[in-house]
Design goal:
This protein has 443 residues and is of the alpha+beta class. It is 28% helix and 23% strand.
Length: 443
């Protein structure tokens, strides 16, 4: 029977691990988008590879200065290749739907009550991530008043966050706006308390200032959508370092507009406010855009535990015993001292993998596995892979030894091979090893 259940789970694992890329354990990923030929051609990006930029194509409120450009026309930005996306605020407007929208993820992210407006879809996830690199097109001088924003969006300008890149006399800045509802808090019964002029407001934060113009920089945004009020979490990283933790625009929609929050599946690049015509043909260069939507590891484990508990009693004593032991092992793996947030582990994180291994071993003992058991095994293996992938992604910016990162990737590949072969115990062990190599810098 162990061979039978392994073959059932392997079918799911094969689909999972062949979706592509090092982040394939996540529900959906796009990128990195590097704007290279033949997928992209120089000129307006409107209509290329799922992108929309109606204004720049002459069909919007204004003819924006947004286009795919030759990198060599500016300077040799390391890692940018031959083509890049260039944006300046030489032309601006107060419009939204005609500005530049990236291609979309298949799976949207948002709260369970968020509305998509028919613009996003797929399987709704609770976390959205996006990262990109940017550089000044003029590395040796300030471009006065240069600025643009990047916002997680669903494709129509219903933004859930706001990150600005700007050129100032002191260098390049990264700024952030979130909406903060302060006491007396808004509620379903008293929504106006969440939109009081003079107290509840959009709050501006200078996330990073004075960045050098003659090097590229990176921005990473991680949004956790949590059902309820005042509890979404948005983390902003600059050059691999967490610079700010804030919230989303959920309560603006909820209390000021009287509408549900929005879903997100793409990035809106927008130029608004006062135009700076002198920046025409220059501006910022943007490259290596990546996006992902997924359910964080800890959240997924809680869902698996709840699913297993919902199967009890099954009517079979041995099956119930195995499920209860698996639940116990999962609960041990959720101990607070093992976790740093919902997707990251502490230095004691190896215990998470060890307890997952126990849970999977117990579930594999079930002689007649229901579909829920098969899904639980596949889910637990996926969680462990995702933890390893997350650690590997963070290792480089954290300054980890490149040899440790290489060993981590080697163990990740070994774990994938074992998972595809149905050897889940060994697969989890390999993912644990991958996590340990990628996390050595924490020591």
């Amino acid at each position: 029977m162990l061979q039978k259940i392994n073959s059932l789970v392997t079918a799911g694992a094969l689909l999972l691990l062949t979706v592509g890329g090092p982040q394939s354990a996540r529900a959906d990923t796009v990128g990195p988008i590097n704007f290279e030929s033949p997928t992209y051609t120089i000129g307006t990006i409107n209509g290329q590879d799922g992108w929309s930029s109606l204004g720049a194509a002459g069909s919007g409120c204004a003819l924006y200065d947004h286009a795919v450009a030759s990198t060599s026309a500016y300077w040799a930005v390391p890692g940018f290749g031959g083509q890049t996306l260039r944006i300046s605020n030489a032309v601006t407007s107060g419009c939204f739907g005609d500005q530049t929208f990236s291609k979309s993820l298949l799976d949207e992210a948002g709260e369970s009550s968020a509305i998509s407006g028919g613009l996003s879809g797929g399987t709704r996830q609770s976390r959205f991530e996006a990262s990109w690199e940017f550089a000044s097109a003029v590395p040796g001088a300030e471009q006065p008043k240069l600025a643009f924003t990047a916002s997680p969006d669903r494709g129509d300008g219903a933004r859930m966050s706001w990150i600005q890149m700007a050129d100032t006399p002191g260098g390049l800045d990264v700024n952030f706006y979130d909406y903060q509802d302060v006491a007396p808090y808004g509620s379903v019964g008293n929504p106006s308390d969440g939109c009081i002029i003079g107290s509840d407001a959009f709050v501006f934060t200078a996330v990073a200032t004075g960045l050098a113009r003659n090097v590229k920089h990176s921005v990473r945004v991680v949004m956790d959508f949590v059902d309820g009020q005042r509890n979404d979490v948005v983390r902003v990283y600059v050059d691999g370092v967490l610079k700010h933790t804030g919230t989303s625009w959920e309560d603006y929609f909820r209390f000021c507009e009287g509408n549900p929050t929005r879903t997100v599946d793409s990035i809106l690049f927008r130029t608004s406010g006062t135009a700076a015509p002198a920046n025409a043909g220059k501006g910022f260069l943007i490259d290596n855009l990546s996006m992902a939507s997924y359910t964080p590891a800890k959240t997924a484990k809680l869902m698996i535990r709840a699913s297993l508990a919902g199967m009890l009693p099954t009517g079979d004593k041995k099956t119930d015993e195995s499920i209860n032991k698996a639940i116990s092992a999962i609960e041990d793996s959720l101990a607070p001292d093992l976790w740093n947030g919902a997707s990251w582990l502490t230095q004691k994180g190896q215990k998470v993998f060890e307890n997952e291994k126990k849970a999977v071993s117990e579930l594999q003992k079930i002689t007649t596995p229901a579909p829920g058991i098969v899904s639980a095994i596949s889910g637990l293996v996926t969680v462990d892979r995702n933890l390893a992938v997350t650690a590997i992604a963070d290792a480089g910016p954290a300054g980890a030894d490149p040899q440790d990162i290489a060993k981590a990737n080697q163990n990740l590949a070994e774990g994938d091979a074992k998972a595809l072969a149905g050897d889940f115990d060994t697969a989890i062990e390999s993912y644990k090893n991958a996590w340990q190599f990628a996390s050595k810098w924490m020591n």
